[in-house]
Amino acid sequence: MPSTTAPQKTAAARREQRRVVAATTIGTAIEWYDYFLYAAAAGLVFNQLMFSPLGTGGATIVAFLTVGLSFLFRPFGAFLAGHFGDRYGRRVVLMVTLFAMGGATALIGLLPTYETVGILAPILLILLRIIQGISAGGEWGGAVLLAVEHAPDNKRGLFGSGPQVGVPAGLLLSSGILALMNVIAPGDAFLEWGWRVPFLLSIVLVFIGYFIRMGVDESPVFAQIAQRKGTTANPVKTLFGKYTPLVITAALLFAGQNTVGYMTTGGYIQNYATNPEGLAMERGPVLLAVTFSAATWMFFTLLAGWVSDHIGRRNTYLIGYIALGIGAAALFPLVNTGSLAILYVALILLTVGLGLTYGQQAATYAELFPASIRFSGVSITYAIGSIVGGAFAPSIAAALVEATGTTTSVTIYLLTMVTVGLIAAVLLRDRTGIPLGPDHEEIQSKGHFTFGQNRTEKISAK
């Protein structure tokens, strides 16, 4: 009996691990489909249908501001999700965020336009975008912790890259469906009704995500904490009371990547390339180029997770930020040629650095914070990094071009943020393989930086 029981348990554990990775990847892809769909529509649709009285330039800037506005509510969602996730589990939070995001997205597809109801239309749009922001603030932390805390110690980067892949997958799905609707409803039909279909499709995707996530077990780390009744009464207070410098540094580690990523996920390149007063490229081919680049971003994200298990999270970040700097420097000089083929080259080159600074992030963040406050630490840090980085990146880019008349200023802005992310990567110690369970909170709570105390301490999973 013992000789067959052990292999059976091992096989069952592996099946559960595969289910978790699949569920978190697919669920995250659905959530970010909703989020990125809005960002793309902001520069292609909402600037014309919701903010038209502001004029072409003003409407575009305000439309992108509504993209950034939701980021201001991400910390609120992260605080809520972190508090309840550290006290009641990762799984229940993921269910709530899934329905909140999907419901808000579907309602956006039913909104009247400014021409129909006046200022009520943009007000309702902004309210629904805020709900999306609150939901996004809690989604990512729960998804990555389920994946990483289920993973074998030597495969956390690979397992954690699953929900990370869900982000470019959401971009691929949203851009792909918008491109398809551009074919089905070309020209004015796209503005009249075609743009609504991808938003309404979110209802179907939410139920798919729900049934997938229903079959996933709670994180084993949280199960141990709950069994021992070791949950923290106020995890957010503990987080900021003890780990504020770590939160800030880790947020900046993400901010550099997020700023550059939001040139496409925030809809800026789509708007810039198709602007009739600028490059005037066709909407459909540009959307297809973004869709294709999302596929290459997925590949390099997965690669980064796998590589980080072998050379460490920190080394992967250093390589990734160098690649990202090259991609950011080349982006606008290539896009400004107005060539569709070179647009593909620019976006694909950008995805190399985007992936290599993103795939390892789930494992990196999970290994930074003690088990009892990990959900709060991961979610809030990610939310702050999103605000500093991607939140207003499209608006800043649009304002810089409006003020200077050139994209050189945008390139300088992107390279500045890449440098910030690179510095943060240099400052943070590599904690690859650190034990994640509640029995090891002492080692989890110290030795985060490459300077100061514990700088020579070796982190071991043993």
From TrEMBL:
Subcellular location: Cell membrane
Gene Ontology CC terms: plasma membrane
PROSITE patterns per UniProt: MFS (PS50850), SUGAR_TRANSPORT_1 (PS00216), SUGAR_TRANSPORT_2 (PS00217)
A Pfam family reported for this protein in Swiss-Prot or TrEMBL: MFS_1
One of the record's GO molecular function terms: transmembrane transporter activity
Superkingdom of origin organism: Bacteria
Annotated ranges, domain Major facilitator superfamily (MFS) profile: 20-433
Membrane-protein topology: Multi-pass membrane protein
Gene3D superfamilies in the record: MFS general substrate transporter like domains
Keyword Transport: yes
Annotated transmembrane regions: 20-46, 58-80, 92-111, 123-148, 169-187, 193-212, 246-265, 285-306, 318-335, 341-359, 380-401, 407-428
Entry keyword set: Cell membrane, Membrane, Transmembrane, Transmembrane helix, Transport
Signal peptide annotation: none
The keyword Transmembrane is annotated on this UniProt entry: yes
Protein name: MFS transporter
Species name: Corynebacterium hylobatis
